[in-house]
Design goal:
mainly alpha, 0% strand, globular
Length: 127
């Protein structure tokens, strides 16, 4: 039987995995990879569409790894870097709030980063 702290760690890790996985999955399903790539190119990134695919595949594969408890520290760190990029490129100019007193701000990304840091700090090496 798992302890409450261990169960709490699993809940946070699995919830973040589901949220990040859905975020990655919706892009190719909805035909948004090319648009994301165009946005990245417009921001000065070379090979925007290829980079968009790399990020998308990492989001999907990384979420799967998180859900399975594999390579947790590395994958969570990668997701943090992607989220920080999103904050800089998209969300910070919009302010803090996602909805309510603003729109599309940083608060959700900050929460996900805090959860991922918690996941990293609580990850246990697999035997």
């Amino acid at each position: 039987m798992r302890s409450q702290p261990e169960l709490a760690r699993h809940v946070v890790r699995l919830t973040v995995a589901v949220l990040l996985g859905i975020h990655g999955l919706v892009r190719p399903i909805g035909g948004g990879v090319a648009g994301f790539g165009g946005f990245l190119s417009a921001q000065g990134f070379p090979f925007g569409v290829a980079l968009a695919w790399a990020i998308t595949l990492f989001e999907i594969g990384g979420a799967t790894c998180l859900a399975l408890g594999r390579w947790v520290r590395v994958v969570a760190s990668g997701h943090i870097l992607i989220l920080l990029g999103g904050i800089v490129l998209v969300h910070a100019p919009e302010g803090w709030f996602v909805v309510g007193r603003g729109r599309n701000g940083v608060e959700y990304s900050v929460l996900l980063i805090a959860c991922l840091v918690s996941v990293i700090l609580s990850a246990r090496p697999r035997a």
